[in-house]
Amino acid sequence: MTPTLAPVADADFEAMLALRIPALRESLERLGRFSPDVARARLQSQFRPEWMRHLVVDGERVGYFTVEPRDGELRLHHLYLAPAMQGQGIGAWVLDQIKAQGLPIALAALRDSRANDFYRRHDFRVVEEQAFDIEYRWEPAA
Fold this sequence. Notes:
By secondary structure, this protein is of the alpha+beta class. The protein is built from four helices and seven strands. Strands 1-2-3-4-5-7-6 form a seven-stranded mixed beta sheet. 25% of the residues are buried. GO terms for molecular function: acyltransferase activity.
């Protein structure tokens, strides 16, 4: 299943929050840190529509991702999929699109999240472990 990409507008905030919360809930509950109010505040603090893209399958928004361009690299802030859409190759497709830009990619994944296995399978290496997050990096082949 190959998604299409759609731009994000300021008016999309609530719809994106509705995707983010179920995607993160299980991992945050495992850490005892789930809060809808915190999820809203975190998304608001990082809401940059120019860096964001919806993932659309059969006309339905099923996820989104955010890539911030930085000096000589990219920072993947979000890659969220509706739980029913996980495990179908969409996340791998997104990573392929981002990797095709040929720049190093940095990201953080919530400790104890299934996302850690996903990023490791896609050649991201751990560069730092923090209290709640694990920092990863991917480098393009020389």
